[in-house]
Amino acid sequence: MRLAVLKERRAGETRVAATPETVKKLIGLGITAVAVESGAGLASGYPDAAYREAGAEIAPDAAAALAGAAILLKVRAPLAAGEGEVDELSLIPRDTLLLGTLEALGNPERAKAYADAGLQACSMELLPRITRAQSMDILSSQANLAGYRAVIEGAVAFDKGFPMLMTAAGTIPAANVFVMGAGVAGLQAIATARRLGGRVSATDVRPAAKEEIKSLGASFVGYEDEESKAAQTAGGYAKQLSAEFYAKQAEVVATHIAKQDVVVTTALVQGRKAPTLVTEAMVDSMKPGSVIVDIAADAGGNCALTVPGQAIVTGNGVKILGYGNWPGRIAGAASALYARNLLTFLTTFWDKDAKAPRLPEDDEIVRGVVLTRGGAVVHPQLTQAA
Ligand code: NAD
């Protein structure tokens, strides 16, 4: 059984899907050869030598890494023909188990290509958010680090500092930090901003989030009504709410936001463009030098003025950080956690006797992630949409 790890080639991707630590454990499972493409871990601080020391073989290129592979670990979807310098997809042997953030729901042609290539492809971002899956949950591990990193970058961009600084020359007040969206990323953003000494408040639409915000020592700011009491789906995500609700929420936020120094936005609604929570008028009301960090930029952004992928300064001197791939901005830690998530998935579905992965079709986790099997697209969200 040979397992391959490729260098990530998509623009801006700095992470890697296995680390020297997980390579050692993969070999411990009974995988006879782990082939890591040369330079795969460089951007996240894992040189070839560290993989070699862990027992991996370093392959000179993607073709060499993939020759004879039965499992492929990726961060992002493999490149298909015309997507970049190498047509990775054409190099993957049939029947390979492919694990990665494949984003196939938004790109159904991708799932079709995996089926045609005879792959067993698993889109790991579709993992159900259930207790048993927590240690394999790539969305949580990556969002957690994104929340941390966003506050750190916000603190650097803010030119006054977070804690109250009492000095002989006078006092600098603590920064007012407002976190919008208190899911995994937002809760970590609250905790990080508090550790840095900021005065932190937060908002969310899900009723459960209010207690979580308070338990981290932040104050809750928000609008609540009968509609928001049912704002959470069975899966724990926020629902799309009415225009009336969003208007009321915006009223409450508008007066609060004008007093903020740093605003971190993390709000997402599954399968849709991120909601606009910070309007142009709200940005206009903010003080020069204040900072908006938009973690939702990849999903279109929570701020009306966010330019995805860029940091900008508005006419009234507000900085808006709209970078994409926030976990990739803390690539060493993000790769370490992502790689452990994939390792846990493989370990959970590992047939010790056959020394091979076995993904039971009736398992809730397997059903959640498997896109293709036996040459066909099988994921219900894709087959029903077809
Ligand atoms: P997410 O990334 O989908 O969204 C981020 C946050 O934005 C959410 O808290 C959401 O309620 C909020 N939001 C959406 N619209 C908003 C608006 N208009 N205003 C303010 N906030 C808004 O969420 P997530 O971080 O992936 O977490 C979603 C849920 O899943 C949470 O309930 C979390 O506790 C749960 N979860 C469970 C597990 C598990 O049990 N394995 C793992 C991770 C997360």
Automatic annotation (TrEMBL):
Task: Show the catalytic activity.
Answer: NAD(+) + NADPH + H(+)(in) = NADH + NADP(+) + H(+)(out)
The residue ranges of the Alanine dehydrogenase/pyridine nucleotide transhydrogenase N-terminal domain are 4-146
Question: What Enzyme Commission number(s) apply to this enzyme?
Answer: 7.1.1.1
Give the molecular function GO annotations.
NADP binding; oxidoreductase activity; proton-translocating NAD(P)+ transhydrogenase activity
Pfam families membership: AlaDh_PNT_C, AlaDh_PNT_N
Stored CDD domains: Rubrum_tdh (cd05304)
Instruction: State if NAD is listed as a keyword.
Output: yes
Has keyword Protein biosynthesis? no
Q: Could you tell me the Gene Ontology terms of the biological process aspect for this record?
A: NADPH regeneration
Name it. Answer: proton-translocating NAD(P)(+) transhydrogenase
